[in-house]
Amino acid sequence: MRVLMYNWCPLLDSEGGGVSVYLRNIVETLAVREDIEVVFLNSGFYYDQSGKTYLRLSENVDWHGVESYDIVNSPVVAPMKSPVDNIERFLNSTELNNLFLEFLSEQKIDVVHFQNLEGLSLEVLSLKNQLPGIKFIYSLHNYVAFCPCVNLWRSDNKNCFVEGNRDCCRCMAKYALPSTERKKRLRERKNPKAYLAGRVETHAMYAIASKTHAHVYDRNTYADLFKLYREKVALYVNTYMDAVLAVSERVRNIALSFGFKPSIVTTEYIGTRFAEHQVDEGHPQLDDMLHLVFMGYMKKEKGLPFLIQALMHMDEGDAKRLNITIAAKLSDPGVFLQIKKLEHRVGNLTYLNGYTHEQLPGILSKQDLGVVPVLWEDNLPQVAIELAASGVPVLSSTFGGASELTKAPGFAFEGGSEDALIECLKRFVHDKSKLDEYWAGRIHFVTMPEHIERLCVYYR
Questions:
Q1: pTM (2 decimals)?
Q2: CB 21: neighbour CB atoms within 10 A?
Q3: Is 133 helix (H, G, I), strand (E, B) or coil?
Q4: Tens digit of pLDDT for each residue in 370-416?
């Protein structure tokens, strides 16, 4: 069986985030099997001055012998957070069809596993009509199928899925400039320094556009476009995908709410290397303090500012019984100042400017409880899996998939509610024995070999 793994980002590039890590793990796990061969393809990432859309074998990519290919100069730039003409091309362009069709035929592909739709045009999915013997599988790692800004996170401020207010025109206003063609030129990677300068220039232009060009997205014109975007993606996915794999039950429910057919959408938690050494009990308690840890980014949607504000409003006596570790790379001076203020309110606070996987055992061995207070529908935060697999129960918001890691009550709070978060923390501050309830309801994490076996059911 020959399986094509597609993602917009090259396999070994750091910009792909957690999805690229997941893909590298899949390829590494499959490398020892004789019944499956993997080919990798990316699109919408590489651009050159030729202006011609073409396919090439990736250079300097050696990951367990996998063949890796690039579509250069795709008409659709990735990631999707792009000017509106890029969205129009995503919906209507047929420029990639012949190239993609020839590639699938020459490579004798049996299964195309789309890890993303970004970088491709939607019409590529219609090739299923010409290749009925090929399986099309789509994994929902993000919300690009429903949201041009990918995260259902309105104007970097609100969870628009929960609020039901999807003001795409306002949200996309900052992408009014530059045009897609300009962005392509900035993405030319022949000279890394020039590429970096282009990235800086692009972000600067976005910052200006968000304040001065909100009027560019005329409500009457573009509101219809964004509505068409959601409807057409749902139509093509329902028509041409053999299976849609949601990485959590929350993601599946969101997909169904946007019109995906229940018959093709199933929940498949992704495999993780942390599952190989997962434990089923917490660490020995060090003292009477509740040792609480937050790990991740300083971004608002990840919930660190929200967590700090909740702790500042917590009863002072309860707050003094908290020993908090915050491991988040310094990216927002304002949030860092909030952390410094919190330092005087809680019993003890340790700040770590980021962390590596090698440091995790040392950090987590001292923790009683991890907190994942996300404000957006974080599909399935990897940090939650890392915490629980390492013996640290997780208190999470109801947004996204983190709260599904245990069926035990009391370990999920209403997303965005400070009062709900405080009540949950008070429960553990006053009775740490309740932390043990987490393990009775915790789900079994899927190892990479187990995950591959589950994928093969869909592939076959």
A1: 0.89
A2: 14
A3: coil
A4: 999 999 999 998 899 999 999 999 999 999 999 999 999 999 999 99
Q: How far apart are CA 106 and CA 208, in angstroms?
A: 46
Which residues are 325's β-sheet partners?
293, 350
Q: How many helices (H) and strands (E) does the chain have?
A: 17, 16
Q: What is the pLDDT of residues 284-313, one digit of tens each?
A: 888 899 999 999 999 999 999 999 999 999
Q: Please list the alpha-helical segments (H only) found in 173-217.
A: 180-186, 192-212
Q: Which two tokens stand for residue 227?
A: 């509505």
Cis previous bond, 79, omega within 30: yes
Rounded distance between C-alpha atoms, residue 460 and residue 458, angstroms: 5
Residue in the structure block whose two tokens are 């250069």: 72
8 A C-beta contact, residue 10 and residue 61: yes
Q: What amino acid is encoded at 357 in this protein?
A: H
- CA 248, CA 258: separation in Å to the nearest integer? 16
Token pair of 215 as six digits: 């009027």
| Pair of tokens at residue 6 | 């597609």
Do 97 and 123 meet the contact criterion of CB atoms below 8 Å apart? yes
Supply 319's token pair.
């707050």
Q: Maximum distance among all alpha carbons in the chain?
A: 69
Cβ neighbours, 10 Å, residue 108? 10
Greater pLDDT, 261 or 212: 261
Tokens read off for 344: 């005087």
CA distances from 354 to 225, 294, 295, 350, 395 (A): 40, 11, 8, 12, 21
**Digit-coded pLDDT (tens) for 224-259:** 888 899 999 999 999 999 999 999 999 999 999 999
Strand partners, 323: 291, 348
Q: Is the pLDDT of residue 100 over 80?
A: yes
Q: Token digits for 232?
A: 């057409």
